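fold description:
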Amino acid sequence: MTDKMTHMERGLAALSGEAVDRLTVYPIACGVCRKLLPGDVTYQQWVSDPKLFGQAFVAGQKRFGFDFAIGLMDLSVMAGDLGAHVRMDEENTPFVDEHIVKDVEDYEKIEAPDIRKGRSNVLIEGTRYFAKELAGQVVTAGFLEGPLLALSQSAGAERLFMDIFSSPSAVHKALEVTSAYDTEMIKAFGTTGINGLCWDYLWANYSCLGDSEYKEFERDYADKLNDIVRREGMAVCIHNCADLPHLDTQILHYKPAIYSMAYYPLIPGSPTAAEVIEKGYADHCLVAGQIDPQVFIRGSAETVTKVTKDLCQEVKTSLCKRGLKSQYCIASGCEVPPDRRTKMENIEAMVDATKAYGVF
């Protein structure tokens, strides 16, 4: 099926709540797109070379024709540059296997790194590469961990959440450092030419923190950071793949341009796409989600097509009930697994199915 709008036209219209020819689509296909590069690029090579990092997003756009390009690397970038040890398997998402906080005093020893070095620099310069290459073709965004997420990766989530209650002042001192680190990253992203900056504010979910705890330990910091993003000329975007998100905080309070989320059908209270739209959250921003990312490894192209078709129908019905024209993006609930076993034809099937069944 031939599109009637360009990716840029459709993306901007959807962000503005204007009519579109079809629903926007963006499988969060980031690390997996390194498979499209010549030379059998490993994950470790991809996250260590700004040019390879950027080229993967350009290759993914050329192959699949996404409506957005969001430069997610992974969630251990900041922790690694803060000094935590990151296990870097060749074909899987990296993870921290040795934290830097062993006791409460260690929170006060944390220092922000030089963002001109390490993977922070790869992220900035790689984003600059794809922002330039895709300028005018598609809406682009960088990707950055929120201050509480960066600290939880560095200290360990279990320890951090206990220390929030037993030693809050020490945790706040560390959050001041991770917020300062984020501030420097924002300013650097502001020089790259991207249209928006996508935050991962993962801990804004009721499985972990209530509203008052979240406000104290991230929202008050995030408010200042979001203001800086806007002053640097970028739109605020948010990705949250947690099960019970703080939608009032993350959508109504933060006021992002895009809000990306997941759905957990086995967890009571996890909001469906229809619920999010019909409760009025899509009135305020472009909502994205919620296909299970594991289907890209475990499922067939036929399965992906059916899942996408069903989501398109659910979304269009709910948008119609709400009187909305466009404010939903068909997306995976979290990153398409960067594993070698991920089937690239399944990514293509999701895009093609949205073009077929997402038409208004």
Notes: The two ends are 13 Å apart (CA to CA). The longest strand covers residues 139-145. The chain has one domain: 7-357. The beta strands are 24-26, 68-71, 85-87, 95-98, 139-145, 196-200, 235-240, 258-261, 286-291, 328-332.
